[in-house]
Amino acid sequence: YNLKQQNFAVSYYDTVTQESYDWNETHMMVAASTFKLPLNLYYYDMQLAGEITGDTMITKGSTLDEAHYQSLVYSNNELSYSLWRRIGDWPEYKQAMRKYFTMTDEEIPQNYYYDHLFCTRMMMDTLKVVWDGQENYTELIDDLKIACPDAYFKTYIDVDETPIAHKYGSFEGAENDVGIFYAEHPFLLAVYTQNVGESVVQDAARLAADYNAQQTELYKQQALQAQLLFRFFSR
Predict the structure, then answer these.
(1) Is the dihedral of CA 119, 125, 131, 137 positive or negative?
(2) Which 3 state secondary structure label does DSSP give 120?
């Protein structure tokens, strides 16, 4: 696919073994609709803190509950824009999203605050927050599981066998996806591309799932060998 630092970035994390892999993960790229993941998470945290309720009107015709659903399942832009404008202007909104990111001031370029840019490390940080607090984000995860059922990460994966909670995005050549794969060893994946097509995202998910399955089997074999060795030397 002629992938290079200007058109591709990926982050992978196995939630069981903590194995991780990143390539070009701090390179700022057009986020497309993946920005809606930390945005909606921000409002779920406000709800948990009692600062807002699902019945709060976001627009004249939509409550926060409806905005969540439309933004995450159908990637509704109008309601998503209403959510970020409620936080403040664009730089204030981008600053607010940083509560989920581990990157320091020195690692984040100034154009992050003024353009529609994120990176896969930011998305991976957000996915980890969702994974670690999943008991608090069941509605968000359920919405992501039913979103875009036959494309992006879900193109080659049997979602009945391995459910995927993902937020995809497509905008002016950017084809991105970020999500949680509920495999035997659940793993997190974030893929950003520019002008290379959705097939790269689809193949990245397939390859990550295959690799994860292989590593899971190897992990089980090594655990069994360790157990047998322990029993042998404990005699």
Answers:
(1) negative
(2) helix
Please tell me the pTM assigned to this model: 0.94
Cα–Cα dist 15/187, whole Å? 5
Contacts for 158 with CB less than 8 Å, ≥ 6 apart:
none
Nearby residues of 23 by Cβ (< 8 Å), 6 or more positions away:
8, 9, 10, 11
Tokens describing residue 155: 């193109």
User: pLDDT, tens digit, for every residue of 172-213?
Assistant: 999 999 999 999 999 999 999 999 999 999 999 999 999 999
How many whole angstroms separate alpha carbon 228 and alpha carbon 235?
11
Contact 168, 75 (CB under 8 A): yes
Contacts of 234 (CB under 8 A, 6+ apart): none
